[in-house]
Amino acid sequence: MIFPLEANLLLSKISTSKNFFETGIGLSILKPLNGFSGQLLTINGYDYNFENKAVNTQVMIRAGFRHQKQTGGLMYRTGALLITGDETLLTIGIGLGYTF
User: Fold this and answer.
1) Which of 80, 76, 79, 74 is nearest to 96 (CA)?
2) How crowded is residue 32: how many other Cβ atoms within 10 Å of its Cβ?
3) In sequence order, which residues have a C-beta less than 8 Å from that of residue 79 and are 6 or more positions away?
4) Containing H/E element for 19?
5) Global pTM?
6) Model pLDDT for residues 6-49, shown as the tens digit of each residue
7) 55 CB-near residues (< 8 Å, 6+ apart)
């Protein structure tokens, strides 16, 4: 089971802007289900080591661009995500969603 928790901050020069610099920090808590017998779990090329641990926690730091209307609706973003834990991974990505 994976529990992602993240807080983001949107910054712009103009209060009515649709374009934002987005930054955020968060935690991702990984807990193996009963019956998981492995010590190493790989998700998207990232290795999680559960040796002598019931829970593995990693910190995520996000920075990028986000386009979002003040009134809600379609939202898209792109940026970089730094994931730290037993290993460190820097990844880039895009996101598409709906805001209200």
Assistant:
1) 76
2) 17
3) 22, 62, 63, 64, 65, 66, 92, 93
4) strand 19-30
5) 0.70
6) 999 999 999 889 999 999 999 988 777 666 666 666 766 666 66
7) 29, 30, 31
